[in-house]
Write a structure and sequence with these properties.
The protein has six helices and four strands; from the N terminus they run ααααββαββα. By secondary structure, the chain is mainly alpha-helical. The strands form two sheets. It has a two-stranded antiparallel ribbon. A two-stranded antiparallel sheet has the order 3-4. This is Helix-turn-helix domain-containing protein.
Length: 149
C-alpha cells in the first residue's frame, strides 16, 4: 500500500485540505505533507490510525481469505499463582475441575473436589503446541507454515 496515494485519495473523497486533515487528526500540516509527498514513506501505525480515525476509517488485519482477524475483548495477562506469566503464544484456559485436562494432575498428592482449594493447582493452564494436523488449513489442504515458504 502506498501511503502517499492513499492519503491523497482520502483527502479527495472527503474534500479536505492538508490543513483540515491535520486539524482533524491532531497532527501537524507538515506531517501530512511529508506523508503525501513520500518524504516519510513508512509512517507508524499510530499515525495512520489517527489520520484514518479522524475521517471515520479504521485499519483492519485480514486473514488470507479476506475475513477480519478479531481479538475478543480486552487483552488479559494470565499468570500462574506464583506470579509467573503463562506463554502468550499458546491457548490458555481455566482449570475448573478435576476433569479439566492438565499436565500437572499426576504430580499432586492431595486432590480436592474444588481445585481452587489446593494452592498447588493453578487457576489457568495452557495447551502445548497443537498437533500439526490441527493447524492444517482444510481450505487449501496444506499447513499454514508451508504457505509462508
Amino acid at each position: 500500500m502506498n501511503t502517499a496515494i492513499m492519503l491523497r485519495e482520502i483527502r479527495r473523497r472527503y474534500v479536505l485540505s492538508q490543513r483540515e486533515l491535520a486539524e482533524l487528526s491532531g497532527l501537524g500540516k507538515s506531517t501530512i505533507g511529508r506523508l503525501e509527498s513520500g518524504e516519510c514513506a513508512d509512517p507508524t501505525i499510530g499515525t495512520l490510525t489517527r489520520i484514518l480515525g479522524s475521517v471515520g476509517l479504521r485499519i483492519a488485519v485480514l486473514h488470507g481469505h479476506g475475513r477480519e482477524f478479531v481479538v475478543p475483548g480486552e487483552p488479559v495477562e494470565y499468570r500462574m499463582r506464583d506470579g509467573r506469566r503463562l506463554p502468550a503464544h499458546l491457548r490458555v484456559r481455566p482449570i475448573c475441575s478435576m476433569q479439566t485436562p492438565w499436565w500437572g494432575w499426576f504430580r499432586i498428592a492431595w486432590m480436592p473436589d474444588n481445585p481452587r482449594q489446593n494452592p498447588a493447582v493453578p487457576a489457568y493452564t495452557y495447551d502445548w503446541r497443537p498437533d500439526p494436523e490441527v493447524l492444517a488449513d482444510p481450505r487449501f489442504g496444506k499447513h499454514k507454515w508451508d504457505a509462508a515458504t
